[in-house]
Amino acid sequence: MSTIIKIAPHVANFGFGQIIMDTIADLRAARAKRAAYDATLRALSEMTDKDLADIGVSRLSIRDIALKAAYGERK
What we know:
This protein is mostly helical and 75 residues long. 69% of the residues lie in helices and 0% in strands. The protein has helices at 2-7, 16-45, 49-54, 62-71. Helix 2 (16-45) packs antiparallel against helix 4 (62-71). The mean pLDDT is 86.
């Protein structure tokens, strides 16, 4: 047990079932963020250059915008 506390002290007081549930919740959240990134990237990529110019977006910044939309600002 002491090995678990040293490696992962934030899970030392939880049961195995709780650890699994937390991991599943984290995976679902990550999947939702990835889906938001993919949807934003797809939507912007499908726009014409004129449409992008109308909203003030360059084609080169599409990836950065999609990352911000899904994952927020980098710290």
